[in-house]
Amino acid sequence: MAKRDYYEVLGASKGASADELKKAYRKKAKELHPDRNSDNPNAESQFKEVNEAYDVLKDAEKKAAYDRFGHAAFEGGMGGGGPRGGQGDFANAFSDVFDDLFGDFMGGRGGGGGGGGRQRAARGSDLRYNLRITLEEAHQGLQKTINVPTSVACSVCDGTGAESGAEPTACPTCSGMGKVRAQQGFFTVERTCPTCGGLGQIIKNPCNSCGGAGRVEKDRALSVNIPAGVETGTRIRLAGEGEAGLRGGPTGDLYIFIQVVDHPIFDRDGVHLSCLVPVPMATAALGGDIEVPTIDGGRSRVKIPAGSQTGKQMRLRGKGMPALRGAGQGDMFIELAVETPVNLTSRQKELLREFADASENNSPESSDFFGKVKSFWEQMKP
Prior knowledge:
Layout: H1 6-10, H2 18-32, H3 43-57, H4 60-69, H5 87-93, H6 95-102, E1 127-133, H7 135-140, E2 142-153, E3 169-170, E4 179-184, E5 187-192, E6 201-202, E7 215-226, E8 235-238, E9 254-260, E10 266-269, E11 272-280, H8 281-286, E12 288-293, E13 299-304, E14 313-316, E15 332-339, H9 346-358, H10 364-380
Parallel strand pairs: 1-9, 11-15
Antiparallel strand pairs: 2-7, 3-6, 4-5, 8-9, 10-11, 12-13, 14-15
């Protein structure tokens, strides 16, 4: 039976780039992997066919020969070595798709590289710090010192993990590669070396201060600049202020998450503020001036129009929050809440009754509502 065209096997065009061929190979290999196609008796042979095609086309010299001579390039001694290599080569050709199918179980992740080389020193973890601030602090911005419990490089061994003058040695289990291989039937599987944890090195004389880790636990005091305009959920990144890496590895980052606590007077909506202001009934009816607070600690005088009702809003421009990115300042909105007087004296009650008896057309909304109610009841009469 004649062999299928390698490009056709991968589902790629002849002008495909190396990246396009790799994507096509991974897609086909995952689709046809025998472990995922137990009900397909041809899956293993199709899987091998896909591997054979990619083993040729991923190599620039083999690809050039195949593009010129086709399958004949690897027959009768032309080009030698063709796609029919030994089982070890076959397994290595699958290393990319193994990563996708089996995740960290296989080699090629976490800094080790697809070739099974020694991993770089482990990077320190990123840290998170939750910082609560007041709305006033969010309005003004502030410089704040925080204490962060973290791991820092050991000062005794300078982060190497070894006693002074001692040098790490190659791990005897993996010979410095950081990975060990095991044969599992048809496949060769790579795992992180259990002895050195993937570092490829061991320390025979560990530092007494850090126990060979190259880092120690310590609280650090950091000065943080909180810009004006931050709000709950704002994230500030401090590069290199996270946990120290293992045995001299790079330091992680520190992420500060801002939470602005609720304010007893102001509510916030982005850059705008709102404030519910109670107004005496007489002031709402007759009109007058009131003073309202502003977030910067100041006061603003507001004129209340005569006949103001509960829910009426007024705007104070530029009295809101500063924009975090870019220029500009939000506004503050005042919402009136007309307050009904309580704990009236006998005289006050008498005056209100006189006012009620003398009132005509002073409550237009009330008159309109009860007029509609009267019409509704009349319609409901049998």
